[in-house]
């Protein structure tokens, strides 16, 4: 793909993934550099003339009324970073941290932050050369920006903290030395420019959102396999039903289901075997569709945020310095809560279809999809594990954005908890991948018990991809290994891509 140009206005979710996960290098457009230089001139003039402006010549938060002299500006910025780096817990993954760095760069190059080009280039060099700061996941309130985690991002720039370089965790100073990147000293406004923004919650949410699209496609493919395994009824997906309740996600899902099972002899019509299917089969368009509508709404908001300015204060082209609230994470907090709820429901209905596959009281298949039941447990405990994940998702789906705890001596009296919302959405999606993978394995196992039938062309393709990784289970095996393989297969998009070569799955 080559180097990706960063200009503050054209970053996409897919580009974030290419850079964060594909290690693509970035370059900054000349126009963006010009804007950064102009913004910096304004900061230098403010300092030179001892003008009182928040975050430039004053303290922070409740200390906004404390004036800082020119001589103390550098000390102020360093103190800001080292005092704010108080995160806790396991670090963000390499790809999440790279996404955080990228989004902060994209914010800075818009030219409203007052950072020096030299400081910006240091962060770019770290991203391109693979110096990845260790950033603990916990500690952000999601307003005043992601202060604590972003402070950890900055530490290696100052020769402090820790980083990963060439796969090894080490001190930030050593990582910078090995990568050939000079340590810097922050000057007026720069510390605040680096940490006052929503880039941590947004970065985690961007990658989760990308993964959710893969999962939504896989959920349709999986549910089509289950529909065939249970000899479900095609009538529930007739366009006549969905045209009169025209939610786009519902319409798309019903259309997907019919395309996926086209040519199948497993599928039945109303009255052939039964008059109606259970809700977990019959209502796939309504449930999956609602989650797809949520996905599209979240995507729209994320695409706005990744190209937005989330600093405080804002330095305008006209030289004005405005204190506002663009650092407040509420726009992201609510949508990532929404995304988590939407993806939790994908897992919820998937687990119910899994139950219908393995429960002999609900179908005409061998109990727990295994020969010699009793001697073998088959898929019995896979449903337990899936149920545990679904239950955990219900806990995680409780909104973070409805909570707020005042901070900074009540100056910052309403916060978003948006970073918690993003992390929860990510965890829900990971859990749901496992649930859907379990259903997919069980559906293929059930299909193998039926003889004399033909799968749809698209579902046969999906089945073939699955069987390359996991085989029919004749007797009990160490189950988690196959479940791991199937989960990774889903995440890899191999199944989705193979099916999309035959039909187009619409989200």
Automatic annotation (TrEMBL):
It catalyses: L-histidine = trans-urocanate + NH4(+). Its EC number is 4.3.1.3. Contains an active site 4-methylidene-imidazol-5-one (MIO), which is formed autocatalytically by cyclization and dehydration of residues Ala-Ser-Gly. There is a cross-link at residues 143-145 (5-imidazolinone (Ala-Gly)). Pathway: Amino-acid degradation; L-histidine degradation into L-glutamate; N-formimidoyl-L-glutamate from L-histidine: step 1/3. GO terms for biological process: L-histidine catabolic process. Its main location: cytoplasm. Pfam families: Lyase_aromatic (PF00221). GO terms for molecular function: histidine ammonia-lyase activity. HAMAP family: His_ammonia_lyase. PANTHER family: HISTIDINE AMMONIA-LYASE. This is Histidine ammonia-lyase.
């Amino acid at each position: 793909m080559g180097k990706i140009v960063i200009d503050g206005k054209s970053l996409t979710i897919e580009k974030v993934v290419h850079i964060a996960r594909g290690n693509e290098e970035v370059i900054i457009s000349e126009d963006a550099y010009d804007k950064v230089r102009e913004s910096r001139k304004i900061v230098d003039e403010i300092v030179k003339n001892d003008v009182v402006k928040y975050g430039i010549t004053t303290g922070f938060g409740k200390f906004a009324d404390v004036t800082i002299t020119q001589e103390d500006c550098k000390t102020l910025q360093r103190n800001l970073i080292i005092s704010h780096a108080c995160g806790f817990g396991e670090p963000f993954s390499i790809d999440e941290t790279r996404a955080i760095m990228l989004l902060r760069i994209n914010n800075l190059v818009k030219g409203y932050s007052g950072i020096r080009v030299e400081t910006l280039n240091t962060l770019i060099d770290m991203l391109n050369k693979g110096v990845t700061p260790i950033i603990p996941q916990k500690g952000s309130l999601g307003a005043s920006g992601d202060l604590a985690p972003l402070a950890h991002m900055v530490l290696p720039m100052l020769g402090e903290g820790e980083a990963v370089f060439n796969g090894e965790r080490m001190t930030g100073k050593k990582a910078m030395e090995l990568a050939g990147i000079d340590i810097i000293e922050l000057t007026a406004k720069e510390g605040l420019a680096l940490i006052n923004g929503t880039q941590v919650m947004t970065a985690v949410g961007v990658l989760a959102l990308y993964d959710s699209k893969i999962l939504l496609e896989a959920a349709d493919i999986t549910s089509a396999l289950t529909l065939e395994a249970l000899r479900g009824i095609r009538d529930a997906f007739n366009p006549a039903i969905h045209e009169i309740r025209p939610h786009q996600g519902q319409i798309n899902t019903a259309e997907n289901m019919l395309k996926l099972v086209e040519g199948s002899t497993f599928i039945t019509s109303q009255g052939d075997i039964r008059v109606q299917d259970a809700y977990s089969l019959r209502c796939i368009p309504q449930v999956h569709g609602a989650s797809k509508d949520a996905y599209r709404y979240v995507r729209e908001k994320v695409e706005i945020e990744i190209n937005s300015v989330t600093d405080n204060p804002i330095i305008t082209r006209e030289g004005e310095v405005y204190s506002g609230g663009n650092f407040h994470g509420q726009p992201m907090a609510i949508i990532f809560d929404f995304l988590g709820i939407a993806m939790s429901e994908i897992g919820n209905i998937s687990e119910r279809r899994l139950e219908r596959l393995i429960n002999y009281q609900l179908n005409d298949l061998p109990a727990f999809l295994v020969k010699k039941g009793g001697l073998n447990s088959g898929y019995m405990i896979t449903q337990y594990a899936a149920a545990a994940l679904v239950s955990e998702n219900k806990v995680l789906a409780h909104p973070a954005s409805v909570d707020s705890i005042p901070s900074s001596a009540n100056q910052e009296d309403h916060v978003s908890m948006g970073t918690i919302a993003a992390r929860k959405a990510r965890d829900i999606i990971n859990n749901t991948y496992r649930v859907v993978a379990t259903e997919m394995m069980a559906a293929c196992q059930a299909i193998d018990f039926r003889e004399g039938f033909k799968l749809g062309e698209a579902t046969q393709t999906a089945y073939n991809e699955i069987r390359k990784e996991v085989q029919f289970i004749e007797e009990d095996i160490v189950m988690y290994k196959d479940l791991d393989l199937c989960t990774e297969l889903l995440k890899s998009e191999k199944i989705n891509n193979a099916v999309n070569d035959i039909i187009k799955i619409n989200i």
